[in-house]
Specification:
Layout (H helix, E strand, L loop, with lengths): L1 H12 L2 H15 L11 H16 L6 H25 L2 H4 L1 H5 L6 H17 L1 H9 L9 H28 L2 H15 L15 H8 L1 H14 L5 H25 L3 H4 L1
Helix pairs in contact: 1-13, 2-7, 3-4, 4-7, 4-8, 4-9, 4-10, 4-12, 7-9, 9-12, 9-13, 12-13
Length: 263
């Protein structure tokens, strides 16, 4: 099981491939546009104040500032997770030429994927701050807890991207399937609705609490907006992290060397 962590340590000792390359991926994508990377803010702004504002207006009596903050954090976090997991299924085929040239430290490619999506997440923070600071539920004391939730999210994104990348290399159809899975997951994740709408003991409550994306979002959003974190969320995230670590380590040790043959 040390194979994965050996490569991961080497990737952190030599971050030139994934740190600079992921930044270059982001810059070159928008270099020919007039607004440049500011285009990365457009989807977030449209979703928070466009879709979020519209859905909030459909619910009489709702506190709009509170609702927009709820939507903002949920959308930005879920988009981060969705982008990483969707791209992870094809990450090794994307860098097929590098792998054929003998670069078998696959952790470089996964870290490049995660860090590229993290840039989008970071760039969205000014808009997120505008929505969150306007909420009457926001309090600065929740920021450390939210950062812990973000750290747990990052760890899980890496481990599960390793697993998804190996599965996607062996079964390319998984890449097409992942888009549908993420769309379904969005509907049962409380992004544009409150978790209170899915109480425990109901079918919709069971579906929400079985949904890992709900717990990943709640780990970041709840401390920030003063929402209650259910004990099941803490247990779920702890179990999810351990399972992801073990699964990624075993899968990497057994299957990483077969990736060039699968591609």
């Amino acid at each position: 099981m040390s194979h994965l962590f050996q490569h991961l340590a080497e990737s952190f000792r030599r971050p030139d491939h994934w740190v600079y390359a992921s930044r270059l991926d982001t810059i070159t994508k928008y270099r020919k546009t007039h607004l440049g990377i500011l285009w990365m803010l457009v989807p977030t702004a449209i979703y928070i104040w466009g879709i979020g504002g519209y859905l909030g207006a459909l619910q009489p009596g709702i506190d709009m500032q509170r609702f927009l903050a709820h939507v903002a954090v949920g959308f930005v976090v879920f988009r981060f997770v969705m982008t990483v997991f969707t791209d992870a299924t094809g990450v090794f085929s994307t860098y097929q030429s590098y792998i054929y040239d003998g670069n078998m430290r696959l952790t470089d490619f996964v870290l490049r994927l995660v860090s590229r999506s993290f840039y989008y997440f970071v760039i969205a923070q000014p808009l997120l701050a505008l929505a969150v600071l306007a909420s009457p539920d926001f309090h600065w004391g929740g920021v450390p807890g939210s950062l812990i939730g973000l750290a747990v999210l990052m760890v899980n994104l890496f481990f599960y991207s390793i697993v998804l990348g190996l599965i996607g290399a062996r079964f390319p159809d998984v890449s097409e399937l992942m888009g549908s899975i993420m769309m379904a997951a969005f509907l049962i994740t409380p992004i544009v609705w409150y978790p209170d709408a899915a109480p425990a003991g109901t079918l919709r409550g069971a579906l929400m609490r079985a949904n890992p994306f709900h717990h990943l979002v709640a780990g970041i959003r709840s401390p920030l907006l003063g929402e209650t974190i259910e004990p099941v969320t803490v247990y779920y995230l702890a179990a999810m992290t351990v399972v992801g670590l073990v699964a990624a380590a075993i899968a990497y040790r057994v299957f990483a060397r077969r990736v060039p043959l699968w591609l």
